[in-house]
Fold this protein.
Amino acid sequence: MTLTVLMAVALFVAVVGMVMVARSPAGKQPTGQRVINAKPARVVTQREEPLWRLLTNLCSALDLVCMPQVHFGAFLDAGRGRGISSKLNKRADFLICSTDLMPVAVIELDDSTHKGREKRDAERDRLVSSAGVRVIRYPQVPARLVLARDLLDLRPRPPEPRRPARLDPTEFRDAGYVNRNSSLLSRP
């Protein structure tokens, strides 16, 4: 009888083992770690792609850099605080940077998915704007000239030329210089 019990237990263990193997997800490693079946995904949506192509073309001509789908945490340093990490986990459709890779603007392409989310979008805009990064929203892909005008406004302005200081004639007289013939300054 013990042999029969041992065979029944062995059969039961074998059946349970086969059921567990059959139920286990395909791709389970022997260590219990699951294999992730990853596949490539589009970085921008089909709706965003025309804007991305326009942006990359115009940005390269204007010495700007366009990066799609950038997490806020990659270009904002908001410190620590309640709820900050969840806000920094959001993504910008397009981040526009100067050539030294400092962020200058976030461009968002609003579509039907933004309907009813205006309050959330306004909060995101305040967060980005608080860092001095401009937010530009388009309800649809803008015309090339509109986009070019907006990007031109983002370029760093060249420094104003320095004007020579206005000369005070008394400073020259006190320093020992005199004005002869009102065109040349010379020592007496």
